[in-house]
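Hey, can you fold this one?
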Amino acid sequence: MPFLFSSAARRVAVSLVGTGLCLLAGCPQPTPALPADDTPAATLSIGTFDTTLSPTGLNLFRVLGPAELALEVTVTPAVESVLGLGFAEAPDGATLFSTPGGSAASDDAALAVMPTDEDLGTGLRFLGTTDEAGFWRLSLEAEPTGAIRTVQAEIDALSSIGQFGVLLWNLSGQPSSGPLFDFVAGQVPSLPLLDERIPAVVTVALRDPSAGGGGGDSDITPAPTSIALAEIVRTGDPVPGQAGATFTYFGNPIIDDDERVAFFAGYTGGTGGNGLYVFADGSLQRVIDDSPGGIAVPGGAAGDAFGGFTVGWDGGAPTMSWGPDGRLIFVAHLNDSGLPNAVFRWRASDADLLALVLPESFRALFANASEDFLPAFYFPGLSDTGVVHFSSRYSFFDTDGAFVFFNTGLFTTNGVRLQVAVDQQLTPTVAVPGRSGATFTGFEQLTAHNTAGTVLLQGSYQNGTGSRGVYAWNGSTLTRILDNGGGSLAGLPAGAVVGDASSSFDAVAIGDRGQIAVAAPLTVGGTTADEVIYFDGTDWTRLSGENGRRAGFLMSGINRRGVLVYRAGGDPHIGDGSTRTRISDAVPGRLLTAGVTWPGFGAGLNNQNRCVLRFERASGGAGLLYWNGSTLLDVADLEIGQPEAWDVVFAETQPLLDDDLLRAGTVKDRPELDRPGRTGMLSDDDVLVFRIGDRGADDTEDTADDLQAIYIGRGE
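Sure. Predicted structure:
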């Protein structure tokens, strides 16, 4: 993946990495200074990339990183050379300067670079930590090779007038034509060799700084030995902001890293019938509801109002996600739309509600859209740098009267500017990475993302080998992860094909260090079976259980240590591709003869390698258990009345992701939606949240005798 810069861009950092031939001609080196913030830079994501470096110009890169992880960058020469770090600038402004082959560290050792011995010369390894999330900027350097030294020798042999002419040419911006260029080209015949670039391999990773950069266990807190349950809310409880109203139904709750719990709910009495609520510090508060004249729509037009969704027994709730610092991102229905047509941010510190995307602001992206524009937004997420992403599906009549039906895309916003990442209508000519001549025909609504804001999404395409793929969007570039068109994947058997032509990949997940998991049919040697494959940044691994059977279900997201939960041979396992533990070996004694089975969905994982699992008894009773790292602790077992003798731990069924886009917004407990420890079922402080229910005496859903409740469990 080469990153080439124009000669103008390369000259911007003249004071930092040298003034090109001025350095070769012996000019004094100025005091190091950083290039301007808007200097062109190649954006790197987590992973390994091929690039080329100019020995005489600026090689500027940027990497988006979260606050709690360390950035590690290693660079290896692919030809004989000496590489180095010109400078590193952290998101908080801290800087470090160095030279090719040198080592350096900041006063507090938060930034450090050291040379590495390679077969073809000297590489480098940079480590940096900061308390702020954002873009790092790095300048990579390379010592001149033999070609550059040839130019140097010719310059050394020049007369004083010749060397002065070279200096003037360089200070004039190295013009490529004109009298000055003609003079220098006549004096230095090997001048074209200055365009030589040195190939190198760059690897970017995020590390756990408290674990010595290796993702170890030094920051894992003592494991809980029991789970204490407390009820947050239940059917019949009073509704905040609605005098006389009581709750009827709840959507699945999610918890953030500060133990705030958010959920949509339905109610009866009062005005309106549905809303969004947050439980924090022991109390319940309203975010929005659909009561006439209730919560105003920020940024909306006169008469705009929340409303159009209905929360029932197990459906209807819009999608949402917690971000850092108590920021809740959610989609909402406006003006009785049957589709979620707006995106909002709510802030826990002051209950501030901000409109990020409204129907009209989204429609403005489409120059040919008429007034009959129907957008729908799903699965929003927020990076640690404040960038929101969301999926969209929309239909409209264009200004020529043609009907555009269910186009799909991925969009981002920083709260000020709305931008398209990929979209059928707005980026129809975007190349399908890795498939020459192919064009996208659509994108799945369900996405996964990590704290740095890299989004993993599925797309379908035509006119190329294969038809579907998994791609990563890092804020500027769409990268192919894999597709069903065949081709080698490092670590998998030669000729292995992931996925099939008729359906989407079953599930995907991405970790903070760029690890990726994909659940899909895998065809090896003519045999096809559902498997889970895992990418550790270098190679793919076919996950398997301690019983030797291949994994078939991806059950959680990937935490910052690279760990995930999956099912293999019918049993849940926790592991990272190289290690694994069969969790089901540690069930409480009373369940040993209960014929327990484990659904292949709906696990909650945190960054301490602990998780929540669903189980089902042979008799039909459902429950939850908590893995503390060595044993399973009781959370809920409805058949024995813990915490109550109800009959459902939601979600009780789990459809696989498929092409029925109308289902977007109703899928629950997917690994894509589990950002371990940050938003989902489980926090890093060993606090979990779940919903239970009872269909009542008539054993029928959505009837008057239905009961539901939301519980919080704390590890002790």
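The chain has a mean pLDDT of 85. Let me know if you want another pass with a different chain boundary.
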